[in-house]
């Protein structure tokens, strides 16, 4: 607004076209007004019912002010070409109850009038809900809708991880990376990267026990203890394996093989180390490349994503593996891994159910959509207040309680409107042992359209096994050890029991 150079630059534009105007923030709307004020004609497309980015500053009220601020006119898009009549009816009824969409009900003509369904299924718990979703997935597949044309959408990754854990056990092929850096194959590779980059040798515990090497935990503890006593790195320790006492024959052979595969890789970047080890030296990828199951393909996709992260770091000029690992830990600690959860387009040919958050589904469509966890506290999620207040000059970024409620409505609207032929809604009466979950208020508006049913489930338990390693009791425990255990029992196992401590723990 004040810079002559900028005003001269933007004066060259005659037309500005804006998509998803409901997700434009205050600063972008002000910039658009400045461009328009200099002479550009503005055209925008928007739907306030799909405003799902308030949490990062989107200001859907820009849509309501458009005619006033730009002297323009508004035209409604009145035909829905995507969804069948029952699905359109369901989200049209819901839109009539939305704070930003009052009076909008019945504003669509349905282009596709034949077939389709909307259903609501209630189950007693998460396992039974996942079984109900499994039955629906297979039913739709028998009706000619392949896995790849079905999607499981949820408000957040916690719900998705609970349900996908069960669905995988039921044999449903899923395309879902989840938390990339917590996946087993990615943790294998990050442990490999840590060798020689971080003191303490903890990564060797995971790498040495890979099937290709088959060393026992006791073998690795002996190797790490030798290296600590000698004050040498893991690479140097592996080079002196003949001097390490107490190794099993199988463990010594496996770790010798690892030493050969890592030869010359100590002082290179994560990108160079992983590409050399994966493609030239080890057989780690072989079984995944020859297998024809979705799980193996998904593992390859995850490895591909990790290599892209390594490549970014390498191309930026930072070759330190320790710095790379610090970056991964920082991403995890700040929960900023969202960008790494989206499956690459290169995987689009895999016949598996697409799994993603509703935010991730924006702009997409599927023949069948499964919307789980339509329960209070899950969809909609609870308001948690402004946990990180913005600076006073950016107060518009602080989403108020009413803004949160409006965004939750928009999320359900977006999720439901992704469905072309079938919309399958489910909920459980209990997601945790401590507390029951009541029906989401969003379901009231679709009650007249949806086929309602109950699925009791098989009663099968899908809990993951807990790997306990009881230790002999001690006469005394230090305060530090107890603190470590209370923070993380696994860390206690590594640091206290196995004595896999870093270099800093031996300092002052």
Task: Describe it.
The protein contains 20 helices and 11 strands. The termini are far apart. With 508 residues, the chain is α/β, with parallel strands linked by helices. It has a 7-stranded parallel beta sheet with strand order 7-8-6-9-10-5-11. Strands 1-2 form a two-stranded parallel ribbon. The chain has a two-stranded parallel ribbon with strand order 3-4. Helix content is 42%, strand content 11%. It has helices spanning 4-10, 26-38, 61-64, 66-70, 85-95, 126-142, 157-169, 184-194, 202-208, 217-230, 234-239, 249-261, 270-281, 286-290, 294-315, 321-333, 358-361, 401-416, 479-487, 489-497, and strands at 15-18, 41-44, 79-84, 109-112, 117-123, 150-154, 174-175, 353-357, 366-371, 419-428, 451-454. Helix 18 links the parallel strand 9 and strand 10.
User: Which oligomeric state applies?
Assistant: single chain
**DSSP helix fraction:** 40-55%
Main-sheet strand order equals: 7-8-6-9-10-5-11
| Low-confidence runs | 101-106
Backbone shape = globular
- The total of helices stands at 20
Computed over alpha carbons, the radius of gyration is: 27 Å
Quickly give the structural class: alpha/beta
- Calculate the terminal CA-CA distance, rounded to whole Å: 57 Å
Strand content: 5-15%
Average pLDDT:
89
Sheet with most strands: 7 strands, parallel
Beta strands, count: 11
Offer a concise description of the structure.
With 508 residues, the protein is α/β, with parallel strands linked by helices. The protein is built from 20 helices and 11 strands. Helix 8 packs across helix 9 and helix 9 runs antiparallel to helix 10.
